[in-house]
Amino acid sequence: MASRESYRIALADDHPLFRQGLRRILEENENLEVVAEAGDGVELLLHKKPPNLVIVDISMPNLQGIDTPKQIRMKYPGMKILMLTMHKEREYLTAALWGGQTDIY
């Protein structure tokens, strides 16, 4: 039986402990591979090999998580992006939706 190609994921969050925990959870599935980690949007955009999915925190230093999807979509059109946040305020959701996010899942 041929093995399936892994689904490549990049993580962007300014909390290393959270990234490490999320990576461990994701990589428990043999078909998921975390190919990049970044502490902010600028660092995320420096990675050369595009993943299938980017998981990005909405609040990060330098290039904010709200602005990062716009930059990702310019570099990699059609990239799947999942945004995470601890914020409960509606303005964060609104900013994420109007900040270049066109796909809602």
Structural class: alpha/beta
CATH architecture: 3-Layer(aba) Sandwich
Q: pLDDT below 50 for ≥5 consecutive residues: which ranges?
A: 101-105
What percent strand? 15-25%
| End-to-end separation | 33 Å
**Number of spatially distinct domains:** 1
Please give the order of strands in the largest beta sheet: 2-1-3-4
The number of helical runs is 4
Radius of gyration from the CA trace?
A: 14 Å
CATH superfamily: Response regulator
Number of beta-strand segments: 4
What is the overall shape?
globular
Summarize the structure.
The protein has 105 residues and is α/β, with parallel strands linked by helices. The chain is 31% helix and 22% strand. It is built from 4 helices and 4 strands, in the order βαβαβαβα.
Please specify the SSE layout and strand pairing:
Blueprint: E1 7-12, H1 16-26, E2 32-38, H2 41-45, E3 53-57, H3 68-75, E4 80-84, H4 90-98
Parallel strand pairs: 1-2, 1-3, 3-4
Describe the protein.
The protein is an alpha/beta fold. Helix content is 31%, strand content 22%. It contains 4 helices and 4 strands, in the order βαβαβαβα. Strands 2-1-3-4 form a 4-stranded parallel beta sheet. Strand 3, helix 3 and strand 4 form a beta-alpha-beta unit. The termini are far apart. The C terminus is likely disordered.
